[in-house]
Each structure stands twice: as structure tokens, then as C-alpha cells.
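Checklist before submission:
- one chain only
- standard amino acids only
- sequence pasted in full

Submission:
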Amino acid sequence: MSQKIAIQVDDLTVAYNYKPVLWDIDLVIPEGVLMAIVGPNGAGKSTLIKAVLGIIDPIAGSVSIYGKPYEKQRKLVAYVPQKGSVDWDFPTTALDVVMMGTYGSLGWIKRPGKKEKKASLEALEKVGMLSFKSRQISQLSGGQQQRIFLARALVQNASIYFMDEPFQGVDASTEIAIINILKELRKAGKTVVVVHHDLQTVPEYFDWVTFLNVKKIATGPVKDIFNDDNLTKTYGINYKVAVNK
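Returned file contents:
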């Protein structure tokens, strides 16, 4: 029995000031994989996620989530943006941030109630941040802030999770906590797509990988395509990386 297709990207091109940032991307991501998107700076990794989510308009191409446009499948998708794109001075508590993740299922008119608060507290506990629930987000460390945004995504109980550099600027214990949660999501049949920069950890953390440098270089199971040849094609130099055989 073949795997369901969770995300399909066809002929996607994105340009800024007439300069292509992504060029003619075709991508099929099966359900239930934990996938890294890797490539050099400026390769279009974050742009690809934003184009899939409709944050950026492509000049050509289309995206579908379980066979339908993203607008119709919005509730199936959760997104953890790059830490640098968030206003951390906004006066709100850790618990409030996580509860924002429940708005998608409630709609903007209804306010979160006991059920949503319980789910948010459970998500905070899962990421090891329950004791910080009343802390202002501006008072948290970078790793703690990242855990809060992961909890906000978890409370959405989505089918697909997009994460833009979730390990950036976090300590080792936070990185381990995050990857363990991502592996749990995969085990539960969720699809997780992560923009990732540390090539050494790809074989350990992920089972699927997409190499990107404006164009798609390769995509597929880590064991099949994470090799020196694709690394060299992607990064433009003779690249060697320790790969678990």
C-alpha cells in the first residue's frame, strides 16, 4: 500500500525583484515523514515553507495539502517561524502564546476556555516549560522561547508541522528535547518538515531530506540520497560529511 501524499509542490517559482529565489520546484512529500530541507544560505529554504503556507505569493506553480489548496486545509497545518521573525517584546505570557495555537479551531470570536487551557498546559509540560507558564516571553532565554513556540504548534494538533530553523541558537538539552518531540510526532503519523542547517545531524534526526539551492537538487529517504554527490551539487564545493552507513 503506497503512502498518502501530504504535500505536493508543482512548478513553483518565487522571485524577489525579478530575481528567482526558487526556480521550478517539484516536490512530493509523503505522509508521516520527518524531513529536513538543507542547502546553503540564500538557497530558498525558508522561502519554500512560506510559499507553501501562502505567506509569499509565487509567480508560478501550485501547492496542495492532501490534494487541496492550503487555504482549504489551513487547520491541518502548524507553523513554527524563525525566532528572529517574532516580536519577543510583545507583553504576553508563555501560556498566552501557547493558547494562541487554539484560535484556529475556535475561530476568532470564541475565546479559549477550560478545555483549551488544559491542552495548552499539557503542551507546556511536554516541552518542559510548565513552570514558566506565567513568565513574560521577553524574560525567557532563546531556547525557552523556542520551546514555547513548539508548544503553541503542538496544541494545534495538526497533521503537518512546518518548522523554520527550530534548533537555531538553542542549547544542547533544548535541541534534544525538540528532536525527541518531532520524532514522537512522526511516530504518531504526523508529517514534519524542518529547515535545518547542521548537516552532521541529518542522518541521526531525519528519515527524509530535500536538497535545495534555488532549484531542487534531490529529495527522498536519507539512507538513499544523503551522500557526498548530492552535497557537492547543492553546496557547490567538494563536500564530505560523516554519513551513518
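Reviewer check: The mean pLDDT is 90.
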